[in-house]
Amino acid sequence: MLAVAVIVIGSLVPARDLPSVPQGFDKLEHFGAYAVLAAGAVQLFQRRLSWGFVCVLLVLLGIALEILQAKMGLGRMLDRQDALANTIGVLIGLSTAFTPWRDLLLRIDRRL
User: Fold this and answer.
1) Mind listing the pLDDT tens digit for each residue in 65-110?
2) For residues 58 and 44, is the Cβ–Cβ distance under 8 A?
3) 51 and 45 Cβ atoms separated by less than 8 Å
4) Model confidence, pTM
5) Which are the contacts of 60, defined by CB distance < 8 A and separation ≥ 6?
6) Residue 20 CB: number of other CB atoms within 10 A?
7) In angstroms, rounded to a whole number, what is the distance separating the alpha carbons of residues 93 and 32?
8) 23 and 80 in contact (C-beta within 8 Å)?
9) For a designed S-S bond to 76, which of 40, 49, 69, 87 qualifies (C-beta 3.0 to 4.6 A apart)?
10) DSSP string across 2-25
11) Which strand (E) or helix (H) includes residue 12?
12) Radius of gyration over alpha carbons of the chain, in Å?
């Protein structure tokens, strides 16, 4: 929940308060953030239905935040490519369910 809150807050910071980044680098930030959230859902939930539900919610969150950026007068705009980067990140994060990383947190927990 903390990671989701950080993304929501970071997405709604006024443009003037954001650090400058190289052209296109923000797409990588969007991709990475949403990939981590979706991969976290794979770690936290056991059922595939839960993964799908969380991933749909993450995609909708990304779209809603883009709309809010445009509507709130923050000096930011709706960027469909950001929403696409978010969605691709969610899909990549979800795909960790089909890799050896699926139960990474359980393996770490057993060692402790």
Assistant:
1) 999 999 998 888 899 999 999 999 999 999 999 998 888 877 787 7
2) no
3) yes
4) 0.88
5) none
6) 5
7) 9
8) no
9) 69
10) HHHHHHHHHHTS-GGGSPP--TTH
11) none
12) 15
Count of positions (residues) in the chain:
112
pLDDT tens-place string over residues 8-24: 999 999 988 888 888 88
Rounded to whole angstroms, the Cα distance separating 26 from 58 reads: 18
Tokens of 17: 């308060």
38 Cβ neighbours under 8 A, 6+ residues apart: 51, 54, 55, 58, 89, 90, 91, 92, 93, 94, 96
Q: Of 38, 45, 44, whose CA–CA distance to 61 is shortest?
A: 38
Task: Name the one residue in this structure whose structure tokens are 């839960």.
Answer: 50
For residue 62, which amino acid is it?
G
